[in-house]
Amino acid sequence: MQKHNIRVKWLMLAALTIVVAMQACVAVKPYQRAYLNDDNMQAGKRPIEKFEENVHTYREGGSGGGSGKASGGCGCN
C-alpha cells in the first residue's frame, strides 16, 4: 500500500510538472517572429536602465541610494 501511494504521488508530481512546463509553450505567428530578436525581448537590463541606475547611485551616494552594502558615499557602512 505504501509503494502505491508513493507511486501515485510521483505520477501526480510528474503530471503537474508537465502541465506547468506546457504553459510556457506559445504559438508564434510568422509575422511576429521578426520581433523575437528585438532588443526589448532580451533578458537583463537595457543600457539606458544601467545608466539610470548608475546616475541614481551617484546622486544618492551620501544617503546610500544604491542596492549594495558599499553604496554609501560618506565612507560609512
Q: What are its keywords?
A:
mainly alpha, 77 residues, 2 helices, 0% strand
Give a written overview of the molecule.
The chain is built from two helices and no strands. It is elongated and about 65 Å long. It is 44% helix and 0% strand. The chain is mostly helical and 77 residues long.
What is this entry, summarized?
With 77 residues, the chain is mostly helical. The protein has helices at 2-22, 47-59. The longest helix is centred in the N-terminal third of the chain and has 21 residues, at 2-22.
* Overall SS class: mainly alpha
Rg to the nearest angstrom? 24 Å
Give the helix tally. 2
* SS elements, strand count: 0
Strand composition percent: under 5%
Distance between the termini: 59 Å
Identify low-pLDDT runs: none
Order of helices and strands: HH
The amount of helix comes to 40-55%
Please write out the topology.
Layout: H1 2-22, H2 47-59
